[in-house]
Amino acid sequence: MNTAEISGIISDKLSEIEDAEEVRILHCIESGSRAWGFASPDSDYDVRFIYVRKPEFYLKLEKTSDVIEWQLDDVLDINGWDIQKAMRLLFKSNMTLFEWNISPIVYKTTREWLSVSEVMDKYFIVEMGLHHYLNMAAGNYREYLTANEVKLKKYFYALRPILACKWIIDNGTPPPILFSELVNSELDEDMRPVVNGLIELKVRTPEIGTGQRIDALNCYIEKSIEEIQASIENCEPKRNHWEELNSLFCRMVGI
Questions:
Q1: Is the pTM of this model over 0.85?
Q2: Left, alpha or beta for 125 (phi > 0: left; psi -120 to 50: alpha)?
Q3: How many CA atoms, within 13 angstroms, populate the side-chain half-sphere of residue 50?
Q4: Of 67, 68, 129, 208, which residue is the least packed, with the fewest Cβ within 10 Å?
């Protein structure tokens, strides 16, 4: 399936969701390996969106769902968050939301979402970003990369968050989503030939499978995890405020 075909299918799916769920989709992007720039030929499409419902929905006393899980199969993985959930997570400096905002593959966006996007960096908290990516890196490393034979693609799921942490430490801003940009900016020169070889293998084969543990990369990952942990201990505290988000939310839902 080429890019135009899949974009057309996703556009139709978004219209289906809006009609069936009585929502407006504010922003829809590609997440996961395709957005990161190292998808395999058979990678599925991780479609993520932010939506808003009618004003009365937000005035109900009973607890209401704040997610839509629309489709999950071998080709499409489609789900989204209510704008209220998204705003609450932004207040907490949720890194997934930052990634959705800067995905290089955008299926739909709106002026309303742009008003959110323009203020997002104000709510970025360095400590929260470091914790998020460090936990991701350490978890993938411990679970998949310490045996003699490992799933080679799991190196990406440890390296990308490590490089994201290094970006945050160096720049104090949300990291870029493209793996190549993180590599160019943050990866040590002596690690690049190994990592570039893994990238070439992943993008041209459906499944790169298992192989011998790459000790040089393991040492790099372990050392980086220790350095990032030390950086977290030195983070200056930051506290976000609700006022601007409350105002944006009210405008978007028409309250």
A1: yes
A2: beta
A3: 27
A4: 67
Distance CA 15, CA 38 (A): 29
- Given a contact cutoff of 8 angstroms between Cβ atoms, the answer to whether 210 and 147 are in contact is no
Would you state the structure tokens that stand for residue 72, as one six-digit string?
């999950």
For 188-200, letters b (16+ CB in 10 Å) and e give: eeebeeebeebbe
What six digits make up the tokens of 105? 């593959």
Question: Tokens in use for 125?
Answer: 């908290």
CB atoms inside a 10 Å sphere around CB 91: 15
Give per-residue pLDDT as tens, 162-192. 999 999 999 999 999 999 999 999 999 999 9
Question: If you search the block for the tokens 């993938």, which residue do you land on?
Answer: 140
48 phi, psi to nearest 5 deg:
-125, 140
Which residues, in sequence order, are CB contacts of 25 under 8 Å at separation 6+?
A: 14, 17, 18, 49, 50, 51, 80, 108
The residue behind tokens 């504010």 is 26
Nearest to 175 by CA among 115, 99, 114, 80: 99
Q: Whole-angstrom Cα distance, residue 187 to residue 176?
A: 14
Residue carrying structure tokens 């000790």: 215
Closest-CA residue to 167 (of 189, 181, 186): 186
Helix (H, G, I), strand (E, B) or coil at 80: strand
DSSP 3-state assignment of 161?
Answer: helix
